[in-house]
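cache lookup: miss for this entity combination. No prior model stored, computing from scratch. Input as submitted by user K.M.:
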Amino acid sequence: MLDGPPATREQEHKRKDSRMTAKSEDTPPEPRTGALPGIPSPWNRPRRGRTQPALSRDQIVAEAFALLDAEGIEALSMRKLGARLNAGATSLYTHVANKEELLALVVDQVFGELPLPVAEGAEDPKVWRAAVLECTEGMRAAINRHPWMVSVLGDVGMVYLGPNWMGISEALLAVMETAGFDLAEANDVMNAVMGYTIGTACVEAAWLSALAKTSRSEQEVMDQLLPTVVAATKDFPRLHRLYTTQVPKEIAAGRDDGFVRGITVILDGIEATRAARRDG
Amino acid sequence: MLDGPPATREQEHKRKDSRMTAKSEDTPPEPRTGALPGIPSPWNRPRRGRTQPALSRDQIVAEAFALLDAEGIEALSMRKLGARLNAGATSLYTHVANKEELLALVVDQVFGELPLPVAEGAEDPKVWRAAVLECTEGMRAAINRHPWMVSVLGDVGMVYLGPNWMGISEALLAVMETAGFDLAEANDVMNAVMGYTIGTACVEAAWLSALAKTSRSEQEVMDQLLPTVVAATKDFPRLHRLYTTQVPKEIAAGRDDGFVRGITVILDGIEATRAARRDG
DNA sequence: TACGGCGACCGAACAGTGTTCGCAACGCCG
DNA sequence: CGGCGTTGCGAACACTGTTCGGTCGCCGTA
């Protein structure tokens, strides 16, 4: 992270070429080179020219990722993204068809962060359960780490065609096959587990990103919100009890346990199915 | 639906008042009344005035709902919605704080379509399983019927504070309590089941709404897409097998079975937990 | 060496978007 | 009758995604 080359490369592309626009007050047109603007000189001539292009798809995706993490989904505009790359907004379109395509690429990038579950030793129920648990927890964590995901997942129709998503799917299928399921069953299991993970993470992350917009702590917001909520539940006795007793506890505990309990129940169901199949 | 008052009321509000703008070519300014524009007469005077306002929150939400169903999420703009209500775009803001708030209201409206699960007789496993199954299938169907839901669910942080969502939650909790779970457990079960439902429905509906944009049949799109997909899976043998054998079958079968198999597994897990708790 | 072609890049422009503001019109209450 | 609160709206603002036409500088060929 701290060594030279990557940072240097970034600097280089950020500089792009120095053909200047007529815009004046932005940055004074490179006064410290001593070269008159427009006259080529070693200091204002395009660094390496066009053949290794200033922009690349990967850089765009990476920068979009960073922008999303830093400022959230509604801060991502093509113009702002272009500016961050020291490029015009329209330049992005030579590398990316659409904003939608860009978002699809970014989403798959997120899945690329996750470690792949390993199938080795998955005949042992303990092992495959641990593998699945780790995989789903990782995915939940990733979505919570990048709450803008939930605003995007719904618009990206083709997530599961991205290479990183495919990698995860393949690995998960391998785990389940090793555990003794045939492919169709493994697929069902994967859908159940992934569905649960994405669904809960969606609800959670929607809350988290609503939270992020008010720049207050979760505890603080909750304290402020609970009276209203409790009042709103007066016609719903069970929800009322839930919000007065259970929910504050969950919030304090960090919500992780609830997720694990859910996935445990699902894994129990899966194992029961598997046992039934072997015995029957 | 066909009797007088409601239709009449709608007509009435669509007419709003007839103070005219300067716009000319739109509709000729009521020539058939015989009244000069601007001069009050029984035919161009505001029908009933403002005290029963021309616009109401409910009407706005209903019209937004219709527009979303008809043209999808990106066709919903405040201006277009206003136009559909024969009102200016800005008028909406006296009834709705935001576009976001509007969307939240619409989302809760969708949940209002669903029948509530009933707790009666839920001590019998067969009964509560059927109740939960019906509830989740209904929700999945609703999301698929309104695929724009998935684009919106992520942005609406507070879904579970809407009255309709609360109604469903309360009813589900009642079912699970009757089935013998305590409140905390019932909550876990609800989260697991709802998480799975929302997650799978999200993936499904994202596909469906991508599909809707190409105006071709699912079979047609699939035939066109499969070769590409199969080619893309060449490094993933299990996915490859899945897409060459399993997936076409699922598509043909309508995808319903997969959902039911998943929820069945989860219910198995829940029942196992319940049995263990009773026996232990 | 000259030149055509090509791919990257970008400014201007288009057709919208959500939202704010100030003003006009009206019914109601005093 | 006069002020008040509510409701509606036109204009305006600051943006948005995307297209188009054009420019620039390199590469392969002649």
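stored under new cache key. Chain B touches chain A through 67 residues (CB under 8 Å).
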